[in-house]
């Protein structure tokens, strides 16, 4: 959910600490230590076996610039995976890596993060949410085997044709799925980017290129990092009336999209209404902005990162290649695990904790020397679990059996919607009043909602307007009415220290939520091995 600048800073800081060994800083301000893994959604009942090819961009100066931009913004030092069907020596087979599931553009996080599902294998899972009306396509995204679903949603318009929300990578497999929908329901007519989050923007241009007759709609407040380039340079070829910014009532569109004669409102607005949050500009660089879309006929709310739901069963796209689940199902690097439903649930439980709080309280971190030494002793049957994602098969932490169940259950609450802690602790808590006003607009206009389709974690979440509103309770906390965060306080220790540290450094504004955060009372040093 969310390769925001803050997350990049978190990962870079903690990865650096891993590389150099832990060095605690004294005082109350900041100790941003430990590995960080990103977020990055559903399973396919039938895997398509159709071969397709991706046309190569022409060698024009513009195409060359697009390629250079993509490489500069999304390159990684991680070696590319060379997945192949694994030998009989491994317990969990490695899936085949064909051109059908290849995404050759490179790492798509606008950073040096070695994201899964980028220049390596990127399968797609299609799910029909409502027959003849709504479909989703899930792929994976993640760091160091902490994978989460990233999801696009497709809606059939009444007048024929398709409307696509936050498109994912246009692999041959996905394009074939889209062509199948086009054959039955008409062409892709509108492609909408409802966020400024970099991991969604990175695939938007490439997808839009495959449907040049579609009108593209851009979220207000766009930005890029480390070079603030226009989204044009990421492959969006549409121009004029086919290249639009989502209009916000009472506000001018960005200068890039202003014309002498205003364009008419979106033709799909009578079917799909929307409410825009932000943009919120960060003090240093970057922004946060997101739009909630509401499909009136099916009473379905579409969001990107603002709310998610998680339960113990791994989403189908995560189970499509269970090696990452088995990687995290181990208590330590020496353990040999079988591919069973309970082990998949255990691996998912831990993956979620890494993805949401970055430094789970139930792990003990090994020293660099011990981690490297123990990696030499990994059982050969487990040797493929980190292929293309984890360097040298490192597993530099230990879990203590099922002690973390309570931590996961505090986050999950049996699938109840919540706003991810990365947002409530570092982004939206800086603008709580504006955020709650947006929540109120969403729940009052779309009061009859029946489901929420987020871009990450669980899909097709049954939820009411009240459920959506309660997901933001942490932002309503006051000195007289404290509201607890969803994760346990000891799991929020790292995020709280990062929040306080970045505030002290002037990178982000101070929090405007009176949280009385108990996470400040938990240290991080005791999570490191004393050996």
Automatic annotation (TrEMBL):
<dbReference type="InterPro" id="IPR025638">
    <property type="entry name" value="DUF4336"/>
</dbReference>
<feature type="signal peptide">
    <location>
        <begin position="1"/>
        <end position="21"/>
    </location>
</feature>
<keyword id="KW-0732">Signal</keyword>
<protein>
    <submittedName>
        <fullName>Uncharacterized protein</fullName>
    </submittedName>
</protein>
<dbReference type="Pfam" id="PF14234">
    <property type="entry name" value="DUF4336"/>
</dbReference>
């Amino acid at each position: 959910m969310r390769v925001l600048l803050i997350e990049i800073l978190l990962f870079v800081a903690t990865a650096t600490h891993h590389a150099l060994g832990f060095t605690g800083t004294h005082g109350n301000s900041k100790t941003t230590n430990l590995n960080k893994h990103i977020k990055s959604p559903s399973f396919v009942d039938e895997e398509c076996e159709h071969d397709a090819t991706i046309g190569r961009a022409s060698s024009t100066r513009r195409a060359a610039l697009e390629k250079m931009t993509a490489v500069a913004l999304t390159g990684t030092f991680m070696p590319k995976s060379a997945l192949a069907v694994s030998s009989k020596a491994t317990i969990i087979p490695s899936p085949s890596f064909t051109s059908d599931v290849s995404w050759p553009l490179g790492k798509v996080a606008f950073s040096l993060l070695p994201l899964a599902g980028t220049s390596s294998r990127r399968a797609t899972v299609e799910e029909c949410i409502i027959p003849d009306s709504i479909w989703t396509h899930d792929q994976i995204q993640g760091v160091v085997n902490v994978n989460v679903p990233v999801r696009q949603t497709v809606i059939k318009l009444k007048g024929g044709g398709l409307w696509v929300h936050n498109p994912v990578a246009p692999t041959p497999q996905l394009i074939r799925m889209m062509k199948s929908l086009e054959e039955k329901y008409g062409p892709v007519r509108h492609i909408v980017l409802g966020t400024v989050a970099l991991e969604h923007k990175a695939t938007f241009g490439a997808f839009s290129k495959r449907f040049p007759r579609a009108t593209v709609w851009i979220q207000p407040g766009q930005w890029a990092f480390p070079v603030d380039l226009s989204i044009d340079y990421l492959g969006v070829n549409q121009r004029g009336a086919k290249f639009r910014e989502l209009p916000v009532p009472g506000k001018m569109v960005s200068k890039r999209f202003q014309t002498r004669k205003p364009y008419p409102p979106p033709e799909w607005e009578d079917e799909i209404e929307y409410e825009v949050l932000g943009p919120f500009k960060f003090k240093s660089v970057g922004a946060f902005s997101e739009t909630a879309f509401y499909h009136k006929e099916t009473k379905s709310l579409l969001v990107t990162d603002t709310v998610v739901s998680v339960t113990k069963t791994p989403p189908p796209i995560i189970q499509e290649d269970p090696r990452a689940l088995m990687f995290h199902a181990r208590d330590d690097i020496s353990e040999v695990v079988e591919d069973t439903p309970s082990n998949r649930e255990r691996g998912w439980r831990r993956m979620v904790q890494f993805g949401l709080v970055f430094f789970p309280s139930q792990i003990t971190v090994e020293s660099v020397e011990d981690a490297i030494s123990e990696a030499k002793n990994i059982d050969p049957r487990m040797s493929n679990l980190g292929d293309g994602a984890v360097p040298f098969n490192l597993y530099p932490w230990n879990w203590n059996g099922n002690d973390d169940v309570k931590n996961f259950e505090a986050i999950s609450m049996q699938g109840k919607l919540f706003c991810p802690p990365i947002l409530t602790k570092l982004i939206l808590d800086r603008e709580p009043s504006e955020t709650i006003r947006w929540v109120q607009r969403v729940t009052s206009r779309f009061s009859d909602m029946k489901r929420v389709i987020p871009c990450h974690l669980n899909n097709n979440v049954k939820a009411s307007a009240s459920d959506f509103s309660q997901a933001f309770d942490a932002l309503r906390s006051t000195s007289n009415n404290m509201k607890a965060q969803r994760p346990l306080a000891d799991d929020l220790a790292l995020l709280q220290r990062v929040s306080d540290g970045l505030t002290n450094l002037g990178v982000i504004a101070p929090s405007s939520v009176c949280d009385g955060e108990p996470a400040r009372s938990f240290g991080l040093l005791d999570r490191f091995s004393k050996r």
